[in-house]
Design a protein that fits this description.
By secondary structure, the protein is α+β, with helices and mostly antiparallel strands. The chain has 4 helices and 14 strands.
Length: about 280
């Protein structure tokens, strides 16, 4: 028995010595662990660029001018091939910075966010595009109505990416309440047509047309800004009448470019989203 005990002690001692040797080797090479930790993280939404796209007028240079802009950018990842994320920014005359509002689903239960990101920042790596812009004295009263519309948004504590209510539902609500904004969301703004069952018929997202929609899954919109648009399972197909173009899922718009509206005697210019969302 003593021989068995000696062999057992020998094996145990050998294993202990080996373990101590490995620990000593690991302690003698601290840089190898540090190097592994310092490796850049794999690309993902946490590290996606969010810097300014350079689209918002400099609020310092234009501090005496009231400005409103609405943006849309492809959503993050593969969803960007299907849908966009919109937001609105504004400032009164005399102000030297913008206020931004959008709906951010992962901030539930308070999904309506103020100044969540830079006014014209990339949306997790995606380049935004200006959908509409207004400048000038008449914008002051428009901003007041925009703030009222934001405060009256009925789904401030709810979010559902499909079919809504989502970020497009929010901006569409602002468009309905402030028709002078002349906001025409693209066809791939999934969720803009979401309506509750007790309000199937009402104003279209531009605020200037009419719409019938069943929870944003089946519907029809008619108006000068949006033309004729059919909604089937959240996918929109239609024809723009004032600026002839096809309204299509995935692309948003195919044809003549939409116009960004300027005030104060400035001419409008086409948006990039008019040809390729």
């Amino acid at each position: 028995m003593s021989g068995v005990r000696q062999r057992r002690n020998l094996v145990t001692g050998s294993l202990l010595a080996l373990l101590l040797s490995l620990v000593a080797c690991a302690g003698a090479q601290p840089n190898s662990g540090a190097a592994a930790i310092s490796q850049p993280p794999k690309p993902g939404w946490q590290t996606a660029p969010k810097h300014s796209a350079g689209l918002a007028p400099d609020p310092l240079l234009h501090r005496q001018q009231a400005i409103v802009q609405v943006y849309a950018a492809p959503t993050y990842g593969w969803r960007g091939r299907l849908a966009v994320h919109p937001w609105i920014i504004y400032k009164h005359a005399g102000q030297q910075q913008y206020t931004r509002y959008d709906v951010v689903g992962w901030r539930a239960p308070q999904v309506v966010q103020r100044d969540y990101a830079l006014p014209d920042g990339l949306w997790y790596g995606a380049q935004p595009q200006v959908l509409v812009e207004h400048r000038g004295p008449q914008v002051e009263s428009m901003i007041d109505r925009i703030e009222q519309a934001i405060a009256s948004y009925p789904y401030a504590d709810r979010y559902r990416s499909y079919p809504g209510p989502n970020s497009n539902t929010f901006i569409a609500h602002v468009g309905r309440e402030v028709p002078e904004l002349r906001l025409d969301l693209p066809a791939n703004a999934i969720g803009k047509d979401y309506r509750p069952l007790n309000e199937i018929v009402g104003r279209s997202p531009t605020g200037s047309g009419v719409q019938a929609s069943l929870l944003g899954l089946l519907g029809l919109s008619l108006g000068w800004e949006e033309g004729i648009e059919f909604n089937l399972l959240g996918l929109n197909f239609g024809l723009d009448l004032n600026r002839p173009a096809l309204r299509l899922p995935f692309w948003g718009r195919l044809g003549l470019a939409e116009q960004v509206v300027h005030g104060h005697g400035q001419e409008s210019f086409p948006t990039q989203q008019g040809t390729d969302d």
